[in-house]
Amino acid sequence: MMNEWAYLFLASVVNTIVQFLWKKKTARVQVDRNALVLIFVGSFCAAWGIDVIQRGLEVLTFVHILKVSLGCWLMFAVSTAAKHYKISGRTMKEFRNDYTGDLIGFLLMGIIIHVLS
User: Fold this and answer.
1) With CB atoms counted within 10 Å of each terminal CB, which end of the chain scores lower, N or C?
2) What is the per-residue pLDDT for 1?
């Protein structure tokens, strides 16, 4: 079993890389160093949350961790952001560009956490 902080760190690094590439290639947004730091901190917090939930639910299967990760994405990222996008007049395309990358990242973080914990 890997040290608790090590696999959370690894999951966060992987998600930071995914987010950087997603923003650069798909959303065509430039990401500076300050944004990368924020992405990493947010990734670490999300990875920690996924880990707490998967431990509390005693996740034993690959399918179950995918459900937990999808649920976290829906509960925390999408549900919170949707209202802000609507209120600020941002488009559904912008929302998809931003949150599809997060979905991929949440799923990858969940898989890493499940496999290494």
Assistant:
1) N
2) 55
